[in-house]
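Quick one, tokens below. Sequence please?
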């Protein structure tokens, strides 16, 4: 068969197939056209393809190219007819899709119990007029220690009790850069930052993460949260501190909570106390508190003869655990959703 004859039969095939698919107006006529032109056994395309064997070898390349063109034109005509008639794969409807089956329930996000506790604490303290304030988690020794009346040789500054950061350059030189910057070990840093920025009267709380290289156990974790409170004004007394903490505790844990101050020591408060709450028959230490030390007022440029104030710092995890009956702090950070979804 000459190349010309082969190309002519391809043209005729394309022309006939095009008009058959274009004029198909129901499933039956479409199916008839499909079998007649593209059918695996008796389809005309198959026949013409067979004839290519008779085209001289040196002209087979041209013949093959044309054959592919015609094949894809017929396929396009078939698909166009198919989608016009609303059937087949192009309809966009998956034939295995059953709209009557129940849907997949989406997984709804969940607020972590510590975040829920933080929101709750802010709400209670907000009702007593305490405004939320924030400070950085990476701190300098001035805000974490010096301004808080913690001198250079104080054990609280020991490298073993803090997460000091190595600067890139110092780390490269393998130098000990203790004292440069650290992850804050307490939220009391925010007291300093706020007093440096503002003048009294001040009434703030700060809720955030703090870090200590503590061995994890049921009540300790190396990263935990504190709620810092600071009130500075004129004639502030220890009775004001106790009232604020009592109102807080009864709002958070219930009317039957009792509060106890135990004498203690913090370099930045004088006098200082440990704050315990009695709840469900047990006394538990929730944090520390006291009247702001005159040296702290001096460090931020306040006159200690003019102003007075109190501060407290409570462990947020301990508060959350007490309220929800959680017995191991590590459960809060295990990432186990079966545990977290309970709250
Ligand atoms: C302080 O951090 C003082 N800054 C508190 C303070 C503020 C005193 C203002 C006076 C004025 P302390 O180190 O005791 O204090 O920690 C306070 C509370 O944090 C503890 O009572 C406890 O509830 C919690 N806490 C301490 N270490 C951990 C830990 N590793 N994991 C979980 N909670 C902790």
């Amino acid at each position: 068969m000459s190349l010309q004859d082969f190309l002519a039969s391809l043209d005729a095939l394309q022309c006939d197939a095009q008009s058959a698919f274009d004029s198909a107006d129901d499933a039956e006529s479409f199916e008839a056209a499909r079998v007649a032109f593209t059918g695996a056994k008796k389809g005309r395309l198959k026949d013409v393809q067979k004839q290519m064997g008779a085209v001289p070898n040196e002209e087979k390349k041209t013949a093959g190219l044309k054959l592919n063109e015609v094949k894809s034109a017929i396929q396009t005509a078939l698909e166009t007819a198919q989608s016009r008639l609303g059937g087949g794969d192009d309809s966009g409807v998956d034939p295995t899709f059953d709209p009557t089956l129940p849907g997949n329930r989406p997984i709804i996000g969940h607020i972590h119990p510590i975040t829920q506790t933080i929101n709750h604490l802010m709400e209670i303290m907000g009702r007593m007029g305490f405004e939320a304030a924030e400070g950085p988690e990476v701190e300098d020794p001035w805000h974490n220690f010096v301004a808080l009346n913690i001198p250079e040789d104080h054990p609280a500054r020991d490298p073993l009790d803090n997460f000091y950061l190595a600067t890139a350059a110092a780390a490269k030189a393998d130098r000990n850069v203790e004292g440069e910057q650290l992850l804050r070990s307490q939220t009391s840093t925010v007291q300093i930052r706020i007093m440096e920025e503002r003048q009294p009267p001040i009434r703030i709380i700060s809720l955030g993460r703090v870090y200590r290289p503590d061995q994890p156990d049921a009540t300790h974790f190396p990263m935990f949260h504190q709620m810092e409170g600071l009130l500075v004004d004129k004639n502030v007394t220890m009775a004001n501190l106790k009232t604020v903490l009592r109102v807080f505790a009864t709002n958070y844990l219930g009317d039957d909570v009792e509060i106890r101050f135990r004498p203690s020591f913090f370099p930045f408060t004088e006098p200082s106390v440990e704050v315990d709450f009695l709840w469900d028959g047990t006394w538990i230490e929730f944090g520390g508190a006291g009247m702001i030390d005159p040296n702290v007022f001096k460090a931020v440029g306040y006159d200690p003869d003019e102003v007075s104030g109190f501060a407290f710092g409570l462990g947020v995890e301990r508060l959350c655990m007490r309220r929800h009956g959680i017995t191991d702090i590590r459960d809060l950070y295990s990432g186990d959703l079966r545990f977290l979804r309970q709250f």
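The chain is about 40% helix and 20% strand. Residues 186, 188, 212, 214, 220-221, 224, 226, 266, 269, 272, 285-290, 311-313, 315, 317-318, 329 surround adenosine-5'-[phenylalaninyl-phosphate] (CB under 6 Å).
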